[in-house]
Amino acid sequence: MPWESREDFENLLADLRAEFKPDGAMEQDTVVDLACLRWQKQRVRKMSQAATYSDPFAVDLIQSGKKSWSGIRRHLRREAKGFRTMIDSLHDMYMRLADKANKVGDGLSAKERENVDVESARREIEGILSTMTQHVLPLIRDLQSGPNAERTLGKAYSPEYLEPILRIEAMIDARIDKALGRFANLKAYKSLASGSAMLPPPPHGRRELELQSSGT
Fold first, then answer.
1. Domain extents for the chain?
2. Does residue 201 register a pLDDT over 80?
3. Is 23 helix (H, G, I), strand (E, B) or coil?
4. Conformational region of residue 65, where left means phi above 0, alpha means psi within -120 to 50, and beta covers everything else
5. Which residues contact residue 60 at a Cβ distance below 8 angstroms, ignoring those fewer than 6 apart?
6. pLDDT at 143 > cutoff 70
7. Percent helix / strand / coil, the chain, rounded to 5
8. 58: how many CB neighbours lie within 10 A of its CB?
9. Each residue's pLDDT tens digit, 148-173
10. How far apart are CA 145 and CA 150, in angstroms?
11. What pLDDT was estimated at residue 84?
12. Which residues have a Cβ under 8 Å from the Cβ of 104 and sit 6 or more positions away?
């Protein structure tokens, strides 16, 4: 990819060539395949890290500077306390608005009985209800169901999050094993072919005896 390091890939390929010492086109191609598969595995890990870093709460955990599980737990408890306080404040606001709407409604009923102009009271109720339904209530729901620091940490270690990553890595590992097997077979084939070519032909008389014995 344009944003990936060509130099890093070339270094990886050079290390594999130095390790396996490929000889011939097929072995060279197999080592290139190994380098590509290793690169893909690294890419999967980088993408999983990028997905975690894209969460603002993960950034907050990193910026907290905590380096131990106990420190992270204390940080999460403080964050959760502030989070609950915010939701409680919004819930109190919602209840105050509902109570105000009820009081205005009660006054509106009395004005209707007295045949008094009630248009302003109706507009006030509509404004209160609009604020409740369009702003306060959706915000409460978003905060309750949306991400937070504790969910972010849990997600990063949850089986549901890790399972697809591990499955992809296992698929790449299987292909790496297959490429290594191909490389070993190439080496074995060349070794066998070279050994057969170096064997001297049997004496003429011995060859005839072998053919006769094989025919029987």
1. 1-55+159-198, 69-146
2. no
3. coil
4. left
5. 79, 149
6. no
7. 85, 0, 15
8. 19
9. 566 666 666 777 878 888 999 999 99
10. 12
11. 59
12. 121, 124, 125, 128
pTM of the model: 0.55
Single-letter amino acid, residue 170: A
- In the numeric block, the tokens 């997600």 are attached to 155
What b-and-e string marks burial along 129-161, b requiring 16 or more CB atoms within 10 Å of the CB? eeebeeebeebbeeeeeeebbbebbebbeeeee
Cα dihedral 33/39/41/45 (nearest 10): -170
Q: Give CA separation, 107 vs 47, 111, 162, 173, 186, in Å.
A: 60, 6, 58, 73, 92
The residue type of 44 is: V
pLDDT tens string 57-90: 677 777 777 777 777 777 666 766 555 556 666 6
Axis-axis angle for helices 69-113, 56-63 (nearest 10): 130
What tokens does 16 get? 């594999």
**Count of CB atoms situated within 10 Å of the CB of 75:** 17
